Automatic annotation (TrEMBL):
It comes from the Bacteria. This is Spermidine synthase. PANTHER family: BLR2883 PROTEIN, THERMOSPERMINE SYNTHASE ACAULIS5. Keywords: Polyamine biosynthesis. One of its GO terms (biological process) is polyamine biosynthetic process. The keyword Manganese does not apply. SUPFAM superfamilies: S-adenosyl-L-methionine-dependent methyltransferases (SSF53335).
Length: 239
C-alpha cells in the first residue's frame, strides 16, 4: 500500500519554490501527483482533460504526416504524451524552463508518463519558452529559425494570469506574431487556459490567425462531484 504523502522533489527557482508530491486519496483510492509553486497548485493528475485536449485539438487541425511539434511546458507530461500517441508526429521538442521538471521525467518519478523521455522522437530542452519566441533564434536552441507544424503551450494559468509578468507580452498581437515566424504555412498554435474564454485574448488571436476558435473543455471533478472546465484556444495560419 502507498504511503499517504511523499514529497518526491523540491527546488527553489527564479519564479518560486517548485515541488512534486504524491499523496494517497482515500476517497478515490488512488495516488494523486501534484505540482506546487510556492503555496500555489499548478497541476494535478486528477485534472488532465484540458492538457490532453490541448494536444488532441491542436493536432486534429493539421493535415498530413511527418509532423514537427513543439510543446511549451512539460509539467506532468500529459500534453506531450498525447502528442506522441499521434502516429503522424515525427519529432517532438519540449521546451521547459525548470530543469527539475525535466529531471522528474528522466528519473521516472511519474509512472503515467513512462516512455515520454525515452521516446526517440522526443527532445527535452531546458529553456524559457517566452524568451525563445521573443529572441532571434526561435524555440530550438540548436536549430535557429526551426519551424513547426504545431506549437502547443501550457505554462501559465491563463493569458490574464501569467506565472511571471514577463510572459504577459506574448499574449498580445505582437507576441503572437513573433510566434507565427516559427510555424509552417497552415501551422497551428494551441493554448491551454484555466479561465473561461477571454474576449481580449480572443481578439488578439483573431488579429493574427485567420482561423481561430475557443474550445471549452468540460470534465468531471471528482472532488466536487460536479463539472469543471478549461479553455483551449486554437489559431491556424493559412496554407
Amino acid at each position: 500500500m502507498s504511503v499517504r504523502f511523499e514529497e518526491l522533489a523540491w527546488r527553489p527557482t527564479p519564479i518560486g519554490e517548485i515541488s512534486l508530491r504524491r499523496r494517497r486519496d482515500p476517497r478515490l483510492d488512488q495516488d494523486v501527483y501534484e505540482v506546487k509553486l510556492d503555496d500555489e497548485f499548478l497541476m494535478s493528475s486528477l485534472f488532465t482533460a484540458g492538457e490532453v485536449e490541448l494536444a488532441r485539438l491542436g493536432l486534429a487541425a493539421l493535415a498530413g504526416d511527418r509532423l514537427d511539434v513543439a510543446v511549451g511546458g512539460l509539467g506532468l507530461g500529459y500534453t506531450a504524451r498525447t502528442a506522441l500517441a499521434d502516429d503522424r508526429v515525427a519529432a517532438l521538442l519540449v521546451v521547459e524552463a525548470v530543469e527539475d521538471v525535466i529531471d522528474w521525467h528522466r528519473r521516472g518519478l511519474l509512472p503515467f508518463a513512462a516512455g515520454l523521455a525515452t521516446d526517440p522522437r522526443t527532445r527535452l530542452v531546458r529553456a524559457d519558452f517566452f524568451a525563445q519566441v521573443a529572441g532571434p533564434d526561435g524555440l530550438d536552441p540548436d536549430d535557429a529559425g526551426r519551424r513547426f507544424h504545431a506549437v502547443l503551450l501550457d505554462v501559465d494559468h491563463s493569458p490574464r494570469h501569467p506565472l511571471h509578468p514577463s510572459h504577459a507580452a506574448f499574449y498580445r498581437p505582437d507576441g503572437l506574431r513573433r510566434l507565427t515566424r516559427l510555424l509552417h504555412p497552415g501551422g497551428v498554435f494551441a493554448l491551454w487556459s484555466d479561465d473561461p474564454p477571454d474576449p481580449d485574448f480572443e481578439a488578439a488571436l483573431a488579429a493574427v490567425f485567420p482561423i481561430h476558435h475557443s474550445h471549452v473543455v468540460r470534465f468531471a471533478n471528482p472532488l466536487t462531484g460536479g463539472q469543471s472546465a478549461n479553455t483551449v484556444y486554437l489559431g491556424k495560419l493559412p496554407d
